[in-house]
């Protein structure tokens, strides 16, 4: 009987996504520590710190449940990168609402920290959408401050901050998209090289190197699950007669056709 693990061992893709998720969790806890420092210095109200911490906790549970249950695979982006970044913007916006105007600019680099995770998975268009969402969140914070906490708002300074943040996040989105394209090109090149190294040139089937690696993985899976493990083998009898009768080119055609049928 397979035991439950925090990170699945039988699905490398899901395991990779969860490891990146835990990196995001660690980054969020670091941001929460910064907020705690703001609170101790008297710049962040206690309600803001509590709401931000609660929001992070809810996001941690929801996203982990989606990854561990496999529901994330139903989305176009199984890593849920855009959703995680957007949720971090919302949490930061709540904290900004409860922060004094003189210290609110500290949140701009924290927003950029969230953007960094998008470079690993998002293209320019989606990064620009997130940049627009970040600006909208900031504008909403200002609107709420005008309505509920006008004494904590320096209108002239905040308008300047909005323009600066908009320019910075848009530039960051463009550069992030460029880096993402480079990473995709490198990944495609790596896949092409891997394919060349693990496939037989004549038949297009996987070669001995790939076969041994897959046998090792499948044997390991069978041992973990305590399930039967079986290897099937096929042999082409009297193949030399084909080469002698039709030549090596004819033999190559037979091998290719057999590989296709098999």
Mean pLDDT: 86
Strand share of the residues? under 5%
| Helical percentage | over 70%
Largest sheet: none
**Estimated structural class:** mainly alpha
Low-pLDDT residue spans: none
Quick one: how many beta strands? 0
Shape: elongated
Separation, N- and C-terminal Cα atoms: 34 Å
Rg measurement, Å: 27 Å
Number of helices: 8
The sequence of SSEs as H and E is HHHHHHHH
Describe this structure in words.
With 262 residues, the protein is mainly α. Helices cover 73% and strands 0% of the residues. The chain contains eight helices and no strands. The chain has helices at 12-40, 46-69, 81-97, 107-116, 124-148, 155-198, 208-225, 239-261. The mean pLDDT is 86.
Summarize the structure.
The protein has 262 residues and is mainly α. It has helices at 12-40, 46-69, 81-97, 107-116, 124-148, 155-198, 208-225, 239-261.
Which features would summarize this protein structure in a list?
single chain; 262 residues; mainly alpha; 8 helices; 0% strand; elongated
